[in-house]
Design a protein that fits this description.
By secondary structure, the protein is an alpha/beta fold. Helix content is 37%, strand content 20%. Strands 3-4-5-8-9-10-11-12 form an 8-stranded parallel β-barrel, surrounded by 5 helices. The chain has a two-stranded antiparallel ribbon with strand order 1-2. Helix 2 links the parallel strand 4 and strand 5. Helix 3 crosses helix 5. It is globular.
Amino acid sequence: MQTRNFGSTDIAVSPLGLGTVKLGRDVGVKYPEAFTIPDDKTAAELLALAKDLGINLIDTAPAYGNSEQRLGPLLTGQRNNWVICSKVGEEFDNSESRFDFSAKHTRFSIERSLKRLNTDWIDIVLVHSDGNDLDVIEHCGALEELEKLKDRGLIRAFGVSTKTVEGGLLAAKQTDAVMATYNLSYQDEQPVIDYCRSHNKGLLIKKAFASGHFRQEGEDPVQQSMDFIFSQPGVSSAIVGTINPQHLIANVAAVKKALAKS
């Protein structure tokens, strides 16, 4: 897969990114089927396959259990091969999420992620919104702190993983990027996608398959979903959190077909 510019930044991302929640957390998730967190050997093989398929974008977060801690050793010696997207604001402890969007916690979270990931920089950092997007963006201090961390070279780009149209639009105006929900079952955030396209902002798509819940009889749901998502020229990359090698191969093939049509 050919990489594409991530908005107006100097970051180039593959159109498909590998989500890694399933490398670190198997409780409190919304997938329709239970799964087993893969061991290190299986996880390393999955990352190697992703790289061979042309994927360079990895999505992780402190809220994804021990995903960051596992990725650090797994990516040893490969840092320059990957664009890492992580997050701040949400913690997951004792099977519960809690949120802290203060400048102090944002700085702490980034410094911790750098250690966990065994890296000197994180390419993309998103504020992991709790749904109160406007309050998080306007009043909590996280974005201002991320701007400072970007100036220090600890991160290369930042934005917000939003849950509302209003939040997505404001995040796109004030930051480098937005992560928005968009799939065949949910298109409410179309205005965010349109704004990112017209203003050259990085746009990551989450829940491309509605967290595995989308089904349509007589159709290939993977191909149908990727055709739909990549008919939108503003999309930088779709994040798909699979630990199944065959699913990953099928996802990449579907993206390639979708891009050939677009």
